[in-house]
Input
Amino acid sequence: MNDNILLKVENLDIKFNSDEVIKNLNFSVNQGDVLAVVGPNGAGKSVLFRALLGLIPYSGKIKWNENLKISYIPQKFAIDRELPLSAEEFLSFKKKSQKEIIDVLVSVGVGAEHRNEPAHQLRHITDHVLKQRLGWLSGGQLQRVLIAWALLDNPDVLLFDEPTSGIDVGGEETIYSMLKKLHSERKLTMLLISHDLNIVYRYANNVLCLNKEMICYGSPATALDSSALVKLYGDEAGFYKHEDHHH
Output
């Protein structure tokens, strides 16, 4: 496999009993790509991620480069408010030093709204989040803690299932800016499932349109044309089309 290609998927078919969820899917991911996977509900997006992680049976080929570290951040899960586990205890399962944990929390923007504070003040804010129970964190804080958890392994590839589900629009913007920053600082390759085509135009260099089979694949500006959107979303396509994508 070409050194630059991290992942090659060939003739991928996935069935649950007789229900064909994905058929004859072919695509590849290069090092440093940000690939967005888009499509309506039930199109097979999360199923594709589970297959890429080797969690479900499939036919066809999924070939990752050897020795890659892959981290996966699932769609936001609800954590019981009464779960007696603090963010710090959760992150310490990774067996990293306190400094590494704090550094990664700062890098994912915990306390981002105070980023102009002096360093010791930022540590204090990070500390405050660490002491909180997981179930007491806001949606945005919890998502950042989950991303920090994934980054503590120093992955080469990050898979995100809807990075911002359950987060308000302002928070959504900062999560994506933070992902963009991580992408450039850590030379990460990212695969993300997103419903927001505006985000796809702005942050992804490649897009895979999926509705059980591949509808389109390529750079967002060229692949997401109106015929692809109609095939993906039917009559609602106009709602998804974003007017400001010629950049």
About this structure: The first helix runs from residue 45 to 52.
